[in-house]
């Protein structure tokens, strides 16, 4: 087996072996989508049906879970346990290690999005997809992975665990993922629109609903995070 | 020309000099032990050879390669065991050995290797659940899986049980028979004496002695006899009787500056018998490696430190009693 295939497979197996990461990447997004689409308690903003903002929002949440939280925690513990250091004296090499991590994220996201799509269709989502949604997911993944590695490259495993989960909650609440951004007070909404989660949700809401568009600032903010976060991570990452 | 060459190596961390002008070389198929107390610079030396540390000055070469500049070529031909960790906490032994095998063009058979390190039965356990000894053996398997020409082992038997130590020593000997060059660090004298062809003793970043275990022990066979007897003997009187200088190096511990010939030893014991004095111990000729080691890495002021420590503890007790 080639080393890239073996490495990617290992990254996937180790992720799926952890119950908490399964809960994070599949359990919570699917549960939130099913629950809030059927139990009508959320503020809807200017949407007719909650699924119209919930499906794009939960896709953004899924991207954030995998790209940021799951990657950050996994990598931080690998660093703490000396795995990254040990791999440094094998012929694997950093480019192949990073490629394997990227491929495993892509594989997990494909599974997440397929399952969310099936559930959304079952819940009555009007199928409508623009190519922008795909670009949004890619940019969002890059931005969140950058943030995840920024934490993992600096903090200890336990600290990363706490920080990533805390950030996850903040970005979830301020990300328009379960509560539409239009429902937030103006000041808080301004801040939310500058966060990667808010920007990604706006991009996905605009590209997964007929008759809606993506505000230009959402693309700008998302692009900025996708450029800034990985650069900051690359500059500060400590392998040991 | 050795397979590992260290030449006037200096490694500094800020103001601290961890390795100070260290030079040694390891020949093909040789097992060399870097022996020294904790913090002596052993790990820094080995990590410089692995390419993790950049020399402040001097040179380090492995298989003729620069560990940093030629890193990609080097990692294909060396195996390494870190002082601790290095394995995914949630992975099974078989999975990680197979994973590491995939990194190399020509690798050992993972299952056979696991049997050799005595982990054939531990296939469904994760790294996190394994004992310290099992983790060390798995780390050793990962160091050997790529059929390396040079192996770096940093404290391979630290903190593991007797059976585990025995197995690891056995595997090191096996590697030597295969012609593999091994550099092993240890702070355990017995370890060094048992596995190494040659020992380099390092202390506070500097080499204090090197040679085969036998050489190290005999080289220190100075012209002296050491013995233990009651304190405060008449060293001048004994000196006259032996026609040599006698020094009480610590209370009850004496050193006679005379060759340890049977005649001299007989004269010493005769003098003790004449004065009806007991003899606690007598060391002549070849010293134990431990004596050499302790003398070379002598911790100055050890007794005062212990005393101060003791006083402090007493102080704590008094405080806690009154409080």
What can you tell me about this protein's structure?
The complex is a heterodimer of chains A (240) and B (323). Helices cover 75% and strands 0% of the residues of chain A. Chain A is built from ten helices and no strands. Chain A has helices spanning 3-17, 19-38, 50-80, 83-87, 94-122, 131-152, 157-173, 186-194, 196-207, 216-236. Chain A is globular. Chain A starts with a helix and ends with a helix. The model of chain A has no long low-confidence stretch (mean pLDDT 92). By secondary structure, chain B is α/β, with parallel strands linked by helices. In chain B, 38% of the residues lie in helices and 24% in strands. In chain B, the strands form three sheets. Chain B has a six-stranded mixed beta sheet with strand order 5-6-7-3-8-9, with helices on both faces. A four-stranded antiparallel beta sheet of chain B has the order 11-12-10-13. Chain B is elongated. The interface between A and B is medium-sized, with 25 and 26 residues.
List keywords for this structure.
heterodimer, A: 240 residues, mainly alpha, B: alpha/beta, 13 strands, disordered C terminus
The stretches of 5 or more residues of chain B where confidence is low (pLDDT under 50) are 299-323
Number of helices of chain B: 12
Biggest sheet overview of chain B = 6 strands, mixed
What is the radius of gyration of chain A computed over CA atoms, rounded to a whole number of angstroms?
18 Å
Short description:
The complex is a heterodimer of chains A (240) and B (323). Chain A is mostly helical and 240 residues long. Chain A is 75% helix and 0% strand.
Topology readout:
The complex is a heterodimer of chains A (240) and B (323).
Chain A: H1 3-17, H2 19-38, H3 50-80, H4 83-87, H5 94-122, H6 131-152, H7 157-173, H8 186-194, H9 196-207, H10 216-236
Chain B: E1 4-13, E2 16-26, E3 31-35, H1 42-49, E4 57-62, H2 71-75, E5 78-81, H3 93-102, H4 110-116, H5 132-144, E6 150-154, H6 162-177, E7 181-186, H7 189-195, E8 198-203, E9 206-211, H8 213-219, E10 225-228, H9 235-242, E11 246-250, E12 253-256, H10 262-274, E13 281-284, H11 289-296, H12 302-322
Parallel strand pairs in B: 3-7, 3-8, 5-6, 6-7
Antiparallel strand pairs in B: 1-2, 1-4, 8-9, 10-12, 10-13, 11-12
Helix pairs in contact in B: 3-4, 5-6
